Amino acid sequence: MKQLPNRILSIIEELIDQYQEDDRYNRPWIIGFSGEKDSTVLLTLVWLALLRIRENNPTTIFKRQVYVVCNDTMVENPVIEEYVSNVLKTIQKAAKEQQLPIIVKTTTPQIEDTFWCCVIGKGYPVPNNSFRFCTEKMKIKPTSNFITNQVAADGEAIILIGTRLTESQQRAKSIKKHDIKGHRLSKHPLNPNTYTYAPIKELMLEEVWWIINAIPSPWGFDNQILFKIYMDASADDYECPTVVTNDSHRSCGQSRFGCWICTVVKEDKSMSALIKNGVAWMQPLLDFRNRLVENRNVSENCTIWYRDDNFSTTVNDIYKIAV
Question: Least enclosed by CB within 10 Å: which of 33, 50, 170, 181?
């Protein structure tokens, strides 16, 4: 393993120590993997920790599984969806070739909880901050079901999360709220017999991008693809300084990617920036998403939805884009 900064090495050493900790369940690790920068860095450091364990003891038998769990809402930003699909295939193949205890799993919402079933089938208004059904039904519930099933099989589980203190004041407050002084693991607030572990919580944004740019992906994927996606999705030029210290240490802000249909945010800056930077085929998706936002709070639409002759046309329009 190449020489790494002490802060990065200390996280890897902590991961090694935590992985090798004796416990009666050999609790599996569950990594929520979105394919974005923080989850990519988290998995990178876990992967390097596993390689270091084998390097120190070539005959070691890995005692606990590491599940890389990706939740597909089925309305993900198409650029990210394609990228993540390719990455997951590479991760699974590389883990098998390197004989690491890493297993890739993808979760999806139940059909009755999908966006189109809720909006078209059940007549839900599209989400806003006061009625955010999508987060619970499409993200939390599928992953919680996987965790519950895994806990039932293994007794307990540890969820590794890629949250960082410097992401936002809200994230910092949440991390500190659940931290137990002197302990790495915290009880999961929702899932019984489940613990959370945030090994990269102290990393700064620049360190995250240093890892992505300077450390080759241990599963053999080109991290520059991810960097370019962030560059193209940055709405403001100042978010992506080209060079921080040298050519291998670049930063690209912290654009967030969500569902292409997301109506919770006032403006989808990342999708707008992608279109501006050459992904023009996404323009109809953005236009349709904006139409949903514009018409969400129009009171007349309550009667149009159920009685107007144009109802079938509206459904067909939605259906064509949904499929």
Answer: 181
Side-chain-side CA neighbours of 294 within 13 Å: the count stands at 6
* Residue with more model confidence, 1 or 138: 138
Look up the CATH architecture of domain 6-222: 3-Layer(aba) Sandwich (3.40)
Instruction: Pick the closest to residue 29 from 82, 3, 75, 66 (CA basis).
Output: 66
- The residue extents of the domains of the chain are 6-222
Q: Which residue has the higher pLDDT, 55 or 180?
A: 55
Cβ-count burial 292-313 (b if 16+ within 10 Å, e if not): bbeeeeeeeeeeeeeeeeeeee
The answer to whether 164 and 208 have CB atoms below 8 angstroms apart is: yes
Q: Read off the pLDDT of residues 274-299 as tens digits, 9 standing for 90 and up.
A: 999 999 999 999 999 999 998 887 76
Q: The tokens of 55 are what?
A: 């390097």
Structure tokens at 129: 């901050």
Residue with tokens 């407050």: 173
SS3 category, 59: coil
* Phi, psi dihedral angles at 285 (to 5 degrees): -65, -45
Q: Choose among 292, 300, 298: nearest CA to 322.
A: 292
Q: How far apart are CA 273 and CA 131, in angstroms?
A: 27
The residues, ordered by sequence, that sit 6+ positions from 235 with a Cβ below 8 Å of its Cβ are 255, 269, 270, 272, 273
One DSSP character per residue, 1-32 reads: -----HHHHHHHHHHHHHHT---TT-PPEEEE
pLDDT for res 189:
83
pTM flag (> 0.85): no
In sequence order, the 6+-apart residues with CB closer than 8 A to the CB of 69 are 30, 31, 32, 33, 105, 106, 107, 143, 146
* pLDDT 10s digits, 124-180: 999 998 889 999 999 999 999 999 999 988 889 999 999 998 664 455 455 455 455
Are 139 and 73 contacting, i.e. CB atoms less than 8 angstroms apart?
Answer: yes
**Residue corresponding to tokens 């709070």:** 297
